[in-house]
Write a structure and sequence with these properties.
By secondary structure, the protein is α/β, with parallel strands linked by helices. The protein contains nine helices and twelve strands. The chain is elongated and about 70 Å long.
């Protein structure tokens, strides 16, 4: 079954490293609008794979903020931290078919090859092992729903990439593919900063015998210095007590007609107007500045 033959299921998957900001809302609203436009479901997933980077209470705060903006998952929210057994089963499948392998290469060893893994160095000691995917030396070609035709030779540019880290944590690239498959996600709408992850995730879908979803990468929101608008660049958190101003800003930054929301004076009315007047062809392809 191809993704084109299934009902539309989209998702928004924040990492709980801090509060959501306008850039987060841009992606969340964009993915929600596309799901609603196609008459599909919209899901929320918490990508809490890396406890050292997680901010205490951030996941629950993010969910409360999204709810204040009227963005609520159509199915129960799942958290990656509770899904290790699912990842383990898929990893064992890849190991059994020879598509994945144990690797004890150190960062310093890989640095001598530009950080790209093509073969393992002889292990001088019994270091903890990571698990990597055998990456074929061929181009991955895909059609982004907004950015157009794209291609990358993952073997040449990335190499054999990690599925499970040597410290025991699951790698983002692997977990997200397993989660999207298990949730039946057909369409992934996210920021351009994750565009480079797409060919790796397509390879993983293929290795697992799965049909890749469709992808649409929205342009990034930039600050006054041309950097990605983010918590690390000083982006202020969304105010759940004042959702309308931020919703209108996100709507405008998605290239939509600002006047379509002028008569809405509540979150519900704003989202209803947004669904009614949303036009895919107006989505911008290039980054927008916050100003």
């Amino acid at each position: 079954m191809t993704s084109a033959s299934r009902s539309y299921i989209g998702r928004f998957a924040p990492s709980p490293t801090g509060p959501l900001h306008l850039g987060s809302l841009l992606t969340a609203l964009g993915s929600w609008l596309l799901a609603r436009h196609h008459g599909g479901k919209w899901l929320i997933r918490i990508e809490d794979l890396d406890p050292p980077r997680e901010a205490a209470g951030a996941a629950d705060a993010q969910l409360r903020t999204l709810a204040a903006f009227g963005l609520v998952s159509d199915l129960p929210v799942i958290r990656q931290s509770q899904r290790s057994e699912h990842y383990r089963e898929r990893l064992e499948y890849l190991l059994a078919k020879g598509a994945a392998f144990f690797c004890r290469c150190s960062r310093s060893e890989l640095a001598s090859h530009g950080g790209i893994h093509h073969h393992c160095f002889p292990a001088r000691e019994q270091r903890p092992a990571a698990i990597r995917l055998h990456v074929p030396d061929e181009e991955v070609i895909w059609e982004d729903q907004l950015q157009g035709a794209l291609r990358q030779n993952v073997a040449a540019e990335v190499g054999d990439f990690v599925l499970k880290r040597a410290d025991g944590y699951w790698a983002y690239q692997f977990a997200v593919v397993v989660d999207d498959a298990d949730q039946g996600v057909t369409d992934i709408v996210r920021g351009m900063d994750l565009l480079d992850s797409t060919p790796r995730q397509i390879l993983l879908h293929r290795a697992l015998g799965l049909s890749p979803p469709r992808y649409l990468h929205l342009p990034l929101l930039l600050d006054d210095h041309g950097h990605k608008f983010s918590k690390s660049s000083g982006a202020p958190p969304l105010d759940p007590d004042e959702p309308l101003t931020a919703l209108r800003s996100a709507w405008r930054l998605l290239g939509q007609e600002p006047s379509a929301l002028h008569t809405a004076d509540s979150v519900d009315q704003t989202l209803h107007c947004a669904m009614t007047h949303f036009q895919i062809q107006r989505l911008p392809r290039t980054s927008r500045h916050i100003g």
